[in-house]
Design goal:
73% helix, 171 residues, single chain, mainly alpha
Length: 171
């Protein structure tokens, strides 16, 4: 679970660096495919007729998140764009007809009870937002233009995590 804090940073960095829309789509699809193959592997033990369509459809949510992220990133830093795009797509993934909750980023906090206490307030989406915020701040720092705004975003994200852990443990 500790890697959840930076889990989206490499993907955000890769999708932002993709040159064209086609390369960005393929990058996002490959990242989504690499994530969902082991995440839903249990489904292959039950039925391949469900496993294969899931592997074809679920990476498309990552593609949509990448599209949103790149559009929002044009005007806002990654610390804002990444959680907005990722939470939006996870919420869409929970809606019918797909309603596929496996692999939600916020569920990674189940191992850290202090932070998991925040789920009683905002559910796993609040934790997904928090992980997206820290990943976005890390993506901002990965860029070569490490400005004071990037460091301020990282400090703000770290402060929110500390506050979340402090107050989440009390819930």
């Amino acid at each position: 679970w500790p890697l959840a804090f930076i889990a989206l940073a490499p993907w955000a960095f890769a999708t932002e660096r993709a040159g064209s829309g086609r390369v960005a789509f393929l990058t996002d699809f490959a990242c989504g495919f690499a994530f969902f193959v082991p995440t839903v592997f249990w489904l292959s033990r039950i039925t391949l007729t469900a496993y294969l369509p899931v592997l074809a459809v679920c990476p498309l949510y990552v593609c949509f998140a990448g599209y949103l992220y790149r559009r929002i990133r044009r005007i806002l830093p990654s610390a804002v764009a990444l959680p907005a795009a990722w939470v939006s797509c996870e919420m869409i993934r929970l809606l019918p007809p797909s309603a596929f909750p496996w692999g939600a980023l916020g569920c990674a906090a189940a191992g850290w009870l202090d932070l998991a206490g925040l789920a009683s307030i905002g559910g796993p989406m609040l934790l997904t937002f928090l992980f997206g915020l820290t990943s976005g701040a890390a993506a901002d720092l990965l860029r070569s233009e490490r400005s004071w705004k990037s460091w301020l975003g990282a400090a703000g994200a770290a402060s929110l995590v500390a506050l979340g852990a402090y107050f989440g443990g009390a819930l």
